[in-house]
Amino acid sequence: MCPICCDLFVCVQIGSACGHSFCGNCGWDWIAKTMPAPTCPYCRTPLNRQAPMIPNFAIESMVQKLVASLAENGVDGWDEEGELWREWQERQQRWKAGAAARASELERYSEAETPPAPASPPQARHEQLLINPSNEPAG
Ligand SMILES: [Zn+2]
Ligand SMILES: [Zn+2]
């Protein structure tokens, strides 16, 4: 269960690096608001700016199996085209559809963080290239 929406995980992600798990959508909704200093939506621990969350494959495969077995057993709402099953699929689609937007958002902030390259005069660069041109080991 996701601690944010209190529902079954959808495309579960893990906070990097506090270790909490939440739906991709639940996590991103919060993280996008806290950029460029992302925090965990659950414990508010600062997260990695370039990769605030990463897929939790272990739990994801458990969830996939659970949903499949709910559908197989015809659990109310979880049979194929059932209301809960449909909602879960829709949330999955929403997560996948947002991939490009999330990537560009993260890229925007990672670029902002990179310090501009120091402008070195052309002459200095030329001298550097001349150091040890034969690549012989020293001594
Ligand atoms: Zn959630
Ligand atoms: Zn956390």
UniProtKB/TrEMBL annotation:
<dbReference type="Pfam" id="PF00097">
    <property type="entry name" value="zf-C3HC4"/>
</dbReference>
<keyword id="KW-0479">Metal-binding</keyword>
<dbReference type="GO" id="GO:0008270">
    <property type="term" value="F:zinc ion binding"/>
</dbReference>
<keyword id="KW-0862">Zinc</keyword>
<dbReference type="InterPro" id="IPR018957">
    <property type="entry name" value="Znf_C3HC4_RING-type"/>
</dbReference>
<feature type="region of interest" description="Disordered">
    <location>
        <begin position="105"/>
        <end position="139"/>
    </location>
</feature>
<keyword id="KW-0863">Zinc-finger</keyword>
<dbReference type="InterPro" id="IPR013083">
    <property type="entry name" value="Znf_RING/FYVE/PHD"/>
</dbReference>
<keyword id="KW-0732">Signal</keyword>
<protein>
    <recommendedName>
        <fullName>RING-type domain-containing protein</fullName>
    </recommendedName>
</protein>
<dbReference type="InterPro" id="IPR001841">
    <property type="entry name" value="Znf_RING"/>
</dbReference>
<feature type="domain" description="RING-type">
    <location>
        <begin position="2"/>
        <end position="44"/>
    </location>
</feature>
<feature type="signal peptide">
    <location>
        <begin position="1"/>
        <end position="19"/>
    </location>
</feature>
